[in-house]
Amino acid sequence: MSVYSYSIVTQSFASSRVATSRSTKRIATSQEYGMHEDLKNKLMSRAIEVLTENFGAPSRETVKVIAWNARHDLGVVLQIDQPNREQGAFIWLPYPPDGQPIPEIALEYPGEAGRHSNTYPSPGLGRGFPALKLLLRTESELNDTVSFIKAFRDAMPLPEVKAYPAEPQSPVAVDVARMPPAKEQPQRREAIPRAVQREVWQRDGGRCVECGTKEKLCFDHIVPFSRGGSNTIRNLQLLCESCNSSKGNRI
């Protein structure tokens, strides 16, 4: 066999191996998505589908998270090891710029706080950067979250993301004549300025003010936005996720 013929055969064999490798990778990815489709948590499965439709193939998959890159500096991380209940999804996003609205369904994590370790490799979610953890319970919240991410990606004004009731609400008969005067609408929840975040972190010593833990710390509004609260240092405190959940919308 001539050197020229041997070269052609070698190149053909190499190309065949590359094609086989690519085909195997495609099959593996398909199998992985098949596993995700079998999740008991239907909202989580739906979130994988919707995020892939809108932001392309995942940039990273582990046993704990699936991540997408909506932009070179905007990572979107879906936590798949939690929640344990059958309906719900946790989505992590970089913290928005000052003055932009914060979703009602979000917990606000300081840059200094420890959080889910698998969020850190994603763009905008590295160590030292504040982050949002959105707690989704309905498909309406999922759709609104996707709109929020798209606006964030395109540097557009961010829409508000409201919390929806998990169960359909039955209509209730109301006597309009006996209704009290309408209350003033609460101001929208906005991003906490970075300088304020640092002051609150230092004042509270990087610990939950209720139980003292340093784990899973997030900002809590002492007087909630829905009840007239603001992003002042005096109205903010550090709480862990558990204490924050227990406090709810109380003052």
Automatic annotation (TrEMBL):
Molecular function, one GO term: zinc ion binding
Location of the HNH nuclease domain: 195-245
InterPro entries (UniProt xref): HNH, HNH_nuc, NA-targeting_endonuclease
Superkingdom as given in the UniProt entry: Bacteria
Gene3D superfamilies assigned to the protein according to its UniProt record, in alphabetical order: 1.10.30.50
PANTHER family, sorted: SLL1193 PROTEIN, TYPE IV METHYL-DIRECTED RESTRICTION ENZYME ECOKMCRA
Annotated protein name in UniProt: HNH nuclease domain-containing protein
